[in-house]
Amino acid sequence: MILRRHMTAALLVAAALVRPAAAPPSPTLLVLNKVENTLAFVDPASGQVTGKVPTGEGPHEVVADGSRAYVGNYGAQTPGSTLSVIDLASRKELRRVDLGPLRRPHGMVMAEGMVYFTAETNRVVARYDPDADRVDWVMGTGQTGTHMIAAHGGGATLFTTNIGSDTVSVLTRGAGPLAWAVGTIAVGKGPEALDISPNGTELWVAHSRDGGVSVVDVASRTVAHTFDLRTKRSNRLKFTPNGALVLISDLDAGDLVVVDARARTDVKRIPLGRSPEGILVEPGGARAYVAVTGDNAVAVVNLETLQVVGRIETGAGPDGMAWVSR
Length: 326
What we know:
The protein is mainly beta. Helix content is 5%, strand content 56%. It is built from 1 helix and 28 strands. It has one helix spanning 2-18, and strands spanning 28-33, 38-43, 48-54, 59-64, 68-75, 79-87, 92-98, 105-111, 114-119, 124-129, 134-140, 146-152, 157-162, 167-173, 180-186, 191-196, 202-207, 212-217, 222-228, 234-239, 245-250, 255-260, 265-271, 276-281, 287-292, 297-302, 307-312, 318-324. The protein has a 4-stranded antiparallel beta sheet with strand order 3-2-1-28, with no helix packed on it. A 4-stranded antiparallel beta sheet has the order 4-5-6-7, with no helix packed on it. It has a 4-stranded antiparallel beta sheet with strand order 8-9-10-11, with no helix packed on it. The model is unreliable at 1-22 (pLDDT under 50).
């Protein structure tokens, strides 16, 4: 009897050792802390940080596919040249992808299972294939400060902002895998933040150096409208899922600017603190999360009342974010 109890206990221990790692709670907010070089896991319901994973130096942007997160390690004093691939279930960095000569990986987007990212120093857009674990495509923009990126049509068209050239690059996939065309659209001074409207018809670009916003018609790839929002230094821009509002972080003013997308005018400026940067709108559209980098916190904004309803201390220098639903 005693031997049987010992054997049962041993079997239970063995089973515990081989049990698969628990998946992160659903949903999960992922927040990059670019000063302390970590990816934080946040439970949106409680606002609690449930874990952290080390990344490369100066992580700025992150995307996720439900099982893994992909982080662009932008670097700090030394330009970064790696991507971190993080398993969401075990909360471990699986590998750090060496990008070779590509420097300052920044804007990231997923399309058709591929990770597209900018390499700011090289003035290019590149593609990482997670299954093959390699960069399989690179396309130059010929522009200065290629920074953020957005995908349209399942990745058939990519838009990037070029801060130093005052342009948006348009990369269009052709009939063959290598048949890509590159064009440019002139916009305002210092274009950085961008997002595509939920109906896919408009690309909004915020200018970090003249306080304006360009509205690009996606079909014709021309600037249909430009208006002055009087921002001091716009940093990120996001549509709400219903397309009614556009949220813009004003880094130097410390505000979240809420814009009526149809009227194309601001309806409210919400003070957040020092250096608000990354923005994420949860899929249901009830709340927005804004990384207040200078305060080492993420502000939670109720999008019905347009009030700050919470703050989450995620670590030093929060910026890029992603949402994981399982």
